[in-house]
Amino acid sequence: MFGLDIYLPDNILTNENLKLEFPHWDYLKIQDKIGIRQRHVAGEKETALDLAYHASKKLLINNDQDSIDFIILCTQSPDYFLPTTACILQDRLGLPKTAGALDFNLGCSGFVYGLSLAKGLLLAGISRNLLFVTAETYTKHINKEDIANRAIFGDGATASIINRQDSLKIGEFTLGTDGSGKDKLIIQNGGMRNAYDLDAKKIEYGNGNYYTNNNLYMNGPEIFNFTIENVPPLIKKNLEANDLSINDIDYFIFHQANQFMLEYLRKKIGIPMGKFCIDIAETGNTVSCTIPIALKNALDKGLISSGNKVMLAGFGVGYSWGAVTIEI
Amino acid sequence: MTKNKFIEKIKDILLIEGEAGIDYFVKIDSLASLMLIEFFDENFDFKLTSETLQQIKTIGDFVELVDGRLQ
């Protein structure tokens, strides 16, 4: 299995902390159903680049950093519009100037897509030893009065080093996109279409959650409907692409959106409980980082080991989705 | 599913205690939305959209969505 490490910011926001801000919030019900007890939150001056740096540094201690010849970095909370976070990371880590570097903008499907890019670069001989980073600070996008999203999302970063030999253990991919879902998870303002609006009006949604168009907006029911419709066929198609059945897979790691959604997907697809990862309690939904965080924790806990087949599936903002089966 | 069992299930999801008929006004939070979507998908293969959820005012509105399929 390729090298993998994670970094989480020091600040922790517990459900008890949130309850102090929102006295009427029934956190025990949320904890029970959504499965999140706490989330790590980047400091005011701490960015995705900082988290990416720390995750990469941890991994590079035991690797020859001069052999890194490509950096790909997935984030939707970059430090700047330009240059890319990957370019700045190359400099801060002191990686070779002969390395290629690029960012790509995806959310919850980002880890699977990153593996597909890595595999392509390695098998094409463009790279021999690649650093793949996911780094997110979604909490900076969320309005302070949006308890629903503040309870779900957390920040974090992961780093993977993948070489050509590792890429041979990355199986077939199944990918999908439906941009008609763009409005369901979106930050409307701050790009070129709609400028950041200092006077943006507060909008209520759900039952007492507030955001402005400068913030992240998520239509939870529609995102849930999207996953119900698209994830079961995604898993079926990826099993077929890899010529495998559910019984051949040792462990399933889906994007850790929330426990309620994951449990329903597990039942609907027919995956035994013991083969299905739910690892969201301590970190929340860290977007493109949930799959590698869960993968690292599963390896550390001995839930998966060398030779095991693990299916990874990511799905969310875009809409975008993807699955791949890897061998540990 | 019987109509009574259906209403009990809706009350259960929305944490409505005691007597509540089809005219009872409901309040749907984000977690209840997910639970309702699961309930309708699992039992009726019915896609409950956010648009539909926004239009629902009473327990009776839920009944109307699947009325022909309740005993």
Brief summary:
Chain A has 328 residues and is of the alpha+beta class.
Can you give a write-up of this model?
The complex is a heterodimer of chains A (328) and B (71). Chain A folds into two domains: 3-168, Peroxisomal Thiolase, Chain A, domain 1 (3-Layer(aba) Sandwich); 172-327, Thiolase/Chalcone synthase (Peroxisomal Thiolase, Chain A, domain 1), CATH 3.40.47.10. Chain A is 32% helix and 23% strand. Chain A contains ten helices and 15 strands. Chain A has helices at 15-21, 27-34, 48-60, 85-93, 110-123, 147-152, 164-167, 220-241, 259-269, 290-300; strands spanning 3-7, 12-14, 38-40, 70-74, 100-104, 129-136, 156-163, 170-177, 185-187, 203-205, 209-211, 216-218, 251-254, 309-316, 320-327. In chain A, helix 3 packs across helix 4 (85-93) and helix 8 crosses helix 9. The longest helix of chain A has 22 residues, at 220-241. The mean pLDDT of chain A is 96. Chain B is mainly alpha-helical. Chain B has a single domain (3-69), classed as Non-ribosomal Peptide Synthetase Peptidyl Carrier Protein, Chain A, CATH 1.10.1200. Chain B has helices spanning 3-13, 30-44, 50-55, 59-65. Chain B is globular. The A-B interface holds A 29-30, 33-34, 148, 206-207, 209, 219-222, 224-225, 228-229, 260-261, 264 and B 27-31, 33-35, 37-38, 41-42, 47-50, 53.
